[in-house]
Amino acid sequence: MKIPTAAGCVTLMLFCLVHAEICPLSCICKPLGEMKGWLVDCSSKGLKEVPALSVSTRKLYLQNNSMTTIRTGAFDSLRNLKEVNVSDNPWNCDCDILYLKLWLEDFSESSIANVICATPASNEGKPLSQLSGNELDSCRKSSPIKCLDFFWRDLALITFAILVLILTSCALRFSKKLAYQVTTRYYYSAVPLLRKHNLENDMSQ
């Protein structure tokens, strides 16, 4: 039996540490060789949420789990991701699912094609890709409030802009008036001196 050398033990430990950082405990991970990334297979693990993932994840399989929603920003750091599968999960298609819907639509059409809603009853069996914001329960309820918030915000911005324009206009008028007054005073103070200078020149001649 061959006894591993110290260098071999160190290499093995480093590999285990790197693998632990890249691969979630409940998942199976494989390096993709020349693609310089990892295949992370977390399918059929009973997961209820997306585990912590490495930025080197290139293929991600999350199908056939127990996830009902995805927390906002869960996939934002996966800049090298090229393939993802989140089908066969009991998705709860309320307003909280909007992040997943928008992210998948931006990622690829094929990724969202097989995502089917399980709840609420009004959306059961419907493809997520076909739902609009108004069809997602809590979004529909919160939309008027959000619209009202946007209205007051926009009104405040418009009012502020008008006040700035009025103040700017007043400042310009005041500066012009001040400049006119200074110029007039200088003119009337200079005229007598000029006349006196001319009179002295005439007398000297």
Annotation keywords:
single chain, 205 residues, alpha/beta, four-stranded mixed beta sheet, two-stranded parallel sheet, 4 helices, 49% helix
Q: What's the count of strands?
A: 6
Proportion of residues in extended strands: 5-15%
What are the secondary-structure elements, in order, as H or E? HEEEEEHHEH
Low-pLDDT regions: 6-20
Q: By helix and strand content, what is the structural category?
A: alpha/beta
Question: Roughly what percent helix?
Answer: 40-55%
Quickly count the helices: 4
Radius of gyration: 36 Å
Can you characterise this structure?
It is a single chain. The protein is an alpha/beta fold and 205 residues long. It has four helices and six strands; from the N terminus they run αβββββααβα. A four-stranded mixed beta sheet has the order 1-2-3-4, with no helix packed on it. A hairpin with a 6-residue loop joins strand 1 and strand 2. The longest helix is centred in the C-terminal third of the chain and has 68 residues. The protein is elongated. 15% of the residues are buried.
